Amino acid sequence: MTDQPLLRLHKVEKHFGDFVALDGVSLTLQAGTVTCLVGPSGSGKSTLLRTVNLLERLDGGAVYLRGEMLGFTRSGDHRRPVPKKVARRQAVNFGMVFQSFNLIPQMTAAENVALGPVEVLQVGRADARRQAHELLSRVGLADRVDHYPAELSGGQQQRVAIARALAMKPSVLLFDEPTSALDAELVAEVLAVIKELAMEGFTMLIVTHELAFARDIADEVVMMEDGRIIESGPPDRILLNPTTERARSFFASVSH
Amino acid sequence: MTTPETLRSGPVTGEELELHSMPIRDPKRLAHWLSYALGAVVLVLTFRFVVLNPHWDWPTIGSWLFSRRVVSGLLNTVLITVVSTAVGLVLGLVVAAFRLSRFAVLRGMAAVYVWIIRATPGLVLILFVYFLAALMPTLSLGLPFADPFFEVPTNHVISQFSAAVIGLSAYLGAYSAEIFRGGVLSVHQGQFETCHSLGLSAWRTYTKVVGPQIIRVITPSLANEVVTMFKNTSLVSVIGYVELLTTVQLVYSQNFKTIPMLTVAVIWYLVLTSLAMLGQSRLEKRFGRGFDRRVVKNTVPVATAEQEGRHD
Questions:
Q1: What is the ipTM of this complex?
Q2: Is B3 a domain residue?
Q3: How many domains does chain B fold into?
Q4: Which residues form the ABC transporter domain (chain A) (predicted)?
Q5: Fewer CB near the terminus (10 Å): N or C of chain B?
């Protein structure tokens, strides 16, 4: 084991026209740690997540996974985007769980989970199906494998989405507000699954508004505002005893 | 007003039925009976107009319906429709891909193509293609202003058949391109993001994930275009290609049985359209997977599910 971090973000910048979504964000994730991104809406949390798995192309800085720069390659005195094939290979290192689940509606739960392994990892259909069943059992959905997404509750859909992300055997799991689209009573079942994964040692980067949950599972909490990190550290210190006035007022306004 | 009435009019004989356990039935209102009456009147009028009217001349229709001339015209119509639909849909796919391209030149070319074809009546389009030789005496393949690699006189290439096919598929190409593009735009952005996250190539994204969703959405509009195509084939009668309509026109110009002969054509168009609609409903069923309501299967026990996986 080297002490090279698993994931390192170095002065990441992202602009949408004149709007600066990310203004030089630096962050490191050690393998096996859980990092929660918190902050008000529009502070750049989701954008940061999306630049990491190359859904958005960053405009400055870099993201390194095990020391390899993602999304760009050196070309003389400048960088240029890597070919799509390389970008796809890099993106597969990240298991993304979206706020709106994004299950594929015409595929059953098991088909959703097996899709990536079959089409991208070249796993045989029977093996992929068996693995899908195992993963769905793991998230408590053994009895829902042949259901279509429309036949599942929001919490169940999100758990299928988590199983689907796990099926790609990612190095880092990315969660983009995984419970924001759920009814209060369904939030707990999804958080329980995420917590279990954290205890199994998955490296995770989680955008969340569930501060109690962040406090419970995070090794580090990062607070963002206006595209910048304004405070970061262990959850107890950040959430209970923030140093900046802005963080204090934000946490006061969100009950936890 | 009616509530006390209903309360009183419960069953009185035998054991008293509780109000809350009475079955619920919708009353037949006056509007229902009026609609039945209207239906009956329309049915009788139609019967009188179609069956009892001697001017239809059903015996003539019957004798021509399966005659060799009409059937060969019908086959020509089917042939043109199938070929033009196939070529037109492929063209439409290409044009839609161009319109959604990240290259402005391709987007521009596709936009101009759609604009011009939409502005041109189908009839004019077919005539234009048929008389293309007047505009370009030879067709050649090569770089502009250089000696061509390959050259043929236009009139050797443009027959009545090929003019019909080129005209009709250019027409369908423009219309179906817009339908395909609309289909792509209708897909939720999250589906593309999911495919990216799973590392699916663009080809796999479209064939496995997004394509089936697009087909589900565009089938009704596309079926419209194909049905229109059956009937647009009648436009090629202007360049003398002997399809169904031209055939019956030729026949009634000799026997003067205009209405019966046109009815023969209409009957066949009805048959063809019904076939297309049958195809449409099968497509809709096939791609409605996950969207249609269905009886949710009972939960599969874990052990069985795993065994299923092993037997696969």
A1: 0.92
A2: no
A3: 1
A4: 7-251
A5: N
